[in-house]
Amino acid sequence: MLQDKFGRRFHYLRLSITDVCNFSCEYCLPDGYQCDTSRDFLSLNEIKRIASAFAQLGTSKIRITGGEPSLRKDLPQAIRACATTPGIKQVAITTNGYKLPEHIDSWVDAGLTSMNISIDSLDPRMFASITGHDKLDVILRGIDRAIELGVTVKVNAVLMRHFNQHELSSFLQWIKTTPITLRFIELMQTGDNQLFFDRNHTSGMPIKEQLVSDGWQQIIRDKAAGPAQEFSHPDFAGRIGLIMPYSKDFCASCNRLRISALGKLHLCLFSEHGLDIREYITDDDTQRLQEELTVLLGDKKSTHFLHDGYTGATKHLAMLGG
To answer: What is the annotated role of this protein in its UniProt record (predicted)?
Structure first.
């Protein structure tokens, strides 16, 4: 079992398979994806070996992330590689959903069980303004199809004071009859968004207080669940989640490790440097990789230090994998 010196166990791996993204979200990549060098992303065989090694160490959930993972044509094969690994019970994906109606059936056929999609506004004009793409209708149709296929759907909305702070009522109306989990995420400071962060950061605590006041009940987290505090209400088909990285003890329940698309282990999403593990995934014998992971985990810190303005190697939110 992967366990650090603080007693935290890691059942959940975020596995990035590309850092390329085709959206230009205002808070993430306002100038679009920029890359001056060729990128040697993880191969399918490397993905299989990583999944196998982590599964043998107790990981039960893998989330495939990017960038935008669907820009890789072999995404269905990557999903299948994870889903068919003994010990892996859940395979999720984080996507912007730009061609979701075209892709979702093949992803489910490959073994996808859950999906996170970013929708920061239900106003089509605001959505296009934030993302640079007029795709809201396409994404919503894709979500409806995913629900039909039995996929667990979570929708992420980054809270931004000057963009969507006033849309809570619209989101609540949507989940009145739509069985998704809508997760509000506090805007996080990264290496290149200081001015935007200062103008737009807003706490999720007022939303939590309003939910509790309106009769929403907090749900007990599963061992492989993400960092959200989730709430349910008997009058709503959907749930509400709050991801508040600046809240007290946010890191105490950390259960996730991250591997970048270039094969580097990040013990924290905000860790300063990725730890290169690529030399340990050159063949199907995963014992060396398991041993190295166990050793490296000893360096995991107790917290992300965001409160001190520390953003580590995270230059933009796309690096967090959605």
So the answer is: Catalyzes the cyclization of GTP to (8S)-3',8-cyclo-7,8-dihydroguanosine 5'-triphosphate.
